[in-house]
Amino acid sequence: MKPIRWCSARKPCRLSEHRLDNEKHAPLPQSLPRSNSCPGFVEAGDVMLWQGDTIVVFYERFDSAYSDTSLGKICETEKLKAAVSNVR
User: What is the CA radius of gyration of the chain?
Assistant: First the structure.
């Protein structure tokens, strides 16, 4: 089952979230299938699957050597940092 299909089949879904530097992440109750790529950077609004069992929302752009599975993109990111991180 593809990750996005797994997530939508289980909505609403409560996850325990954590903040780390430029991201908000939440471990999933089970691993999902991966299709990793390493684009060299992440953008604000990127929603990724890390190690198959953690959803990550990035709220700042930065260079990255991580290999993640892209789940989607939040397009309107102007207020994203404040909304997900309580950072103003």
Answer: 13
